[in-house]
């Protein structure tokens, strides 16, 4: 797999700061409120550390969803966050260019043939992605438009 092995959570936390700043900008541009707080994450390889969490509120102050970091030590990714609403949850993963791969080597006599398979399609640049479904394996880079669509999917938020 071509993910970065995390020795400490600093790069994950820096990535969270960047994506959370974008989410806050996108939500407030849509007339929503964002409340920041902290949570503790415990991972076997990293121990316990503090990370930010966002609550997305509608204009009347009712919570629509939470954006919660799950961890940095994620197989095939550089981190994971969940967007949890009252109706559903979606998973976002921080991927390197191309996303995770699996290499298979077949040896016949002195000849080796290596076949590399990408787990997902559409991972053209590093960043946070939503994977459409396991069947298609299509990755969608998190943008303002996609964030608001996913927020509507997991909550009772209706876009104007």
Produce the secondary structure layout.
Blueprint: H1 10-29, E1 33-43, E2 47-57, E3 63-71, E4 80-85, E5 89-95, E6 101-108, E7 111-118, E8 127-131, E9 139-141, H2 144-154
Helix pairs in contact: 1-2
Biggest β-sheet: count, sense, barrel?
7 strands, antiparallel
Distance between the termini: 41 Å
Q: What integer value in Å does the Rg equal?
A: 18 Å
Provide the domain count. Answer: 1
Number of strands: 9
Strand content: 35-45%
Roughly what percent helix?
10-25%
Class computed from helices, strands and strand pairing: alpha+beta
Instruction: Count the DSSP helices.
Output: 2
Low-pLDDT windows of residues: 1-5
Biggest sheet, strands in spatial order?
Answer: 1-2-3-4-5-8-9
- In sequence order, what are the helices and strands, one letter per element? HEEEEEEEEEH
From the spread of the alpha carbons, the general shape counts as globular
């Amino acid at each position: 797999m071509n993910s970065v092995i995390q020795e400490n959570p600093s790069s994950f936390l820096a990535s969270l700061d960047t994506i959370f700043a974008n989410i806050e900008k996108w939500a407030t541009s849509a007339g929503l409120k964002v409340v920041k707080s902290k949570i503790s994450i415990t991972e076997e390889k990293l121990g316990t550390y503090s990370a930010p969490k966002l609550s997305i509120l509608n204009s009347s102050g009712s919570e629509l969803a939470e954006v919660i970091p799950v961890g940095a030590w994620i197989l095939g990714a550089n981190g994971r966050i969940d967007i949890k609403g009252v109706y559903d949850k979606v998973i976002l993963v921080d991927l390197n260019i191309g996303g995770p791969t699996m290499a298979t080597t077949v040896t016949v006599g002195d000849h080796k043939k290596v076949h590399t398979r990408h787990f997902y399609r559409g991972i053209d640049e590093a960043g946070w992605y939503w994977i459409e479904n396991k069947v298609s394996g299509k990755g969608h880079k998190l943008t303002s438009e996609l964030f608001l669509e996913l927020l509507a999917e997991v909550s009772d938020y209706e876009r104007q």
